[in-house]
Amino acid sequence: MLEKDIENVNGSLTDESVTEPVNNESVAEETVEPEAEAVEEATAEPEAEAIVTEETEEVSHVDAEYTQPSVESSYGGFSQKWNYERYESKAKNKGRGLKIFAVAMSFLFVATLSAFLTYYAIDQKSGNDAVYGGGAGKPSSPVSNLPVTEKITNSAVTFYPEVSGQYTGEELSSQEIIALATPSVVGIKTMVEQYYSFYGTQTYEGVGSGFIITEDGYIVTNYHVIEDAASIKVILENGTEYDAETVGFDELSDVAVLKIDGQNLPALVIGNSDAVVAGDTVIAIGCPSGIDLAGTSTRGMVSMVNREISITDYYGRVQKIMSVIQTDAAINPGNSGGPLLNSRGEVIGINTLKLSSTSYEGIGFALPINGVMKLVDQICENGAVVERPTDSFVTGKAALGITYREITAAESREYRLPQGVLVVLLSQGGAAQQGGMKSGDVIVAFDGNDITTKDELIQLIDTKKPGDTVVIKVYRDGDYKELDITLTESSR
Known about the structure:
With 492 residues, the protein is of the alpha+beta class. The chain has helices at 2-9, 16-19, 24-30, 37-42, 46-57, 80-132, 148-151, 174-181, 223-226, 369-382, 409-415, 431-434, 454-462, and strands at 185-196, 200-212, 218-221, 229-235, 241-243, 245-250, 255-259, 281-286, 296-312, 318-327, 339-341, 347-354, 364-368, 394-396, 398-399, 402-406, 421-426, 442-446, 449-450, 469-476, 479-486, 488-489. It has 3 domains: 2-78, no CATH class; 160-396, Thrombin, subunit H (Beta Barrel), CATH 2.40.10; 397-489, PDZ domain (Pdz3 Domain, Roll). The protein is 28% helix and 28% strand. A 7-stranded antiparallel sheet has the order 5-4-1-2-3-7-6. It has a 6-stranded antiparallel beta barrel with strand order 8-9-10-13-12-11. Strands 16, 17, 18, 19, 20 and 21 form a 6-stranded antiparallel sheet that branches. Strand 11 (339-341) and strand 12 form a beta hairpin. It is elongated. The model is unreliable at 1-82 and 130-138 (pLDDT under 50).
């Protein structure tokens, strides 16, 4: 049947051309020969249909019952040759596109791989530099890839040396000084009662420091720590709390001695403040800001020895001059009364005050222990300082030793008294009493200068030093008298 169909379309085709087994390649070759052009103009050959069938269904053999499609069912009447060339063009274009895509993907892969290798090399170098600091001798191993725990360098120390808390008389480390001294430093807590006319009695809590000087419980501190205290408690480093009693004090030098009922207490070793020089290492221990911070240690050096500082009152008048040890070890409120220790763990001073201003930092002061212990001996024996040492570290202002009030102009007219300063009371053993002054005297002149107000008298006394002798003119029982009075040292 196939041979008949082909003859109907083109009689010029021979039997030989169709008796051979038909396959896709033979059909394709016959459809592109020049002799087929006339037939192509009239109709589409069966082989063309076979080709179309190949494109869509991949048929390998021509069906024996295959019939020629009509011209109208072909590709719009175009030649089979055009259809074949169109197929070839599409195949070539498709192949070209695949090649371009493959080249592009290959380029992208190569670029990505290059970037990755570059990043890896840079990361490895920076990691090694970070661990080993870079430069010659750097190991070539990829340290950056190690776990963090393997990168960390741990200390080779497998034990901690035992810190001795024993006094040896030799130079000690800071750790040894702190271990030695801390058990001997105490916190001092006071309750102060003050009466106000509008609010009644108000109670305040004060905090300071001190240190043990004897095994049976004598403690040295600053006087201002316990001033006006209604009750005093001492807290040891281990938390043990004692009620304390005041043995005595010296307000001028700001030294006080307390006593607690204890035995076998750790006492500090007293050093020699005369041997201290600028540059010596010192450690201060105390309770800055409260008992909760008891045992706080700060380290510094001696900035100056025999530093003279003036202590003034509320009005700016100089009350006393002190020769102290200046240090840059931090001394804060609550440190007052605590010890200043040298590099052997010996007490060389009592921390007492600092310059308190935002303009100053690292300027603190301590009372020299040599001068303090001379006062402590008298306080423990007499409850007060009976005779001030000639080499005392504190010099009080000159004192007349009286309680006084001013006689106003109105009172002068009313009572027919000269205007001046009325002597109300005399201090026992004071300069005025020893010089023959009496209560009720009116001071009208001081060392040749007429006075009418108490401020004028105070200013004239402040120009003198303890031990100076002055002539004071007083009005007594209608007469004027001149008294030679040697000024003493103020006890405040």
